[in-house]
Amino acid sequence: AEVGEWNDWRIDQHAQESRKHPYIAVKSRRYLQAIADELASRPNVELNFGQAFTQSQAELVLDSRAQPLPEEGLKQHFLGWHITYDEAKFTHGEAVLMDFIASAPDPCTFLYVLPFTDGSALVELTCFSEKVWDQEAYKPLLRQEIESRFGTGYRILQTEQAVLPMSPLRKRDKQRHIHIGQPGGWMRPSSSYSFGKSLQMADRLAPAIIQGHNLANYKAYPWHLRMMDNIFLSVLSRHPDKAPDLFRALGRGVSGGRFARFMVGEPTFSDIRNIMMALPKGLFLSAVARGGFL
Predict the structure, then answer these.
(1) Is the whole-model pTM more than 0.85?
(2) Residue ranges in the chain whose pLDDT is less than 50
(3) What per-residue string of b and e applies to 68-86 under the rule 16 or more CB within 10 Å gives b?
């Protein structure tokens, strides 16, 4: 299901690389179909799609239904086009995680580019803000940025658009009703990353179920990372104009390996110290003094 892998990426103009922690893109439709086919082949599994869930007599329910977006709090919202040109336009071996757009209506707005070949890429207009834009507002700016950077004459092969929460949404578990995925706190609030962590949590929970452990005790992220996310998001929410410089500071002052480990929720103590040293102290100390939480 993998469609792209990059060992080199950049945040604005700051290049990073990691051979041990590549940035990977997965085609969700292929992946989900492969999982559905595997489950359908098991005689003890019954698949029911499109049915309303009301009450279950099962001994255990694992609930991954997405929760409604909160009205308040930061959100990551985006429109992306998989585009193709007839000639080379992209640096095939380098992903662009953030390339900030100064002319955008919100300060933390950036272009995200995953080049699958030198002529084909996913180009996404992404914004971190509390207010989500009108659905049609993304297209003119995305088109403008594509044409100014790569030129005209492209074809749109596929579109993706979504709004993701950047605040903790973990629901309270009951004895036999356990929340997993987004409502289980498996999505990292500061990045909205969740795929890799979901695979890890599934591997942790499967033997725990067999052994009869209390699944409510299995948290995706340790308390210190949850606290760091809350402080970081508090700063972004109170100082959105500072957001581009904060991410540039991470790109400039942190190695690719440290950045990757932190983003997937597996930083070492040394990684955390390095990240804290790279960011401006005043904003974050003020957030801690206020309580540091959204």
Answers:
(1) yes
(2) 1, 294
(3) eeeeebbbbbbbbbbbebe
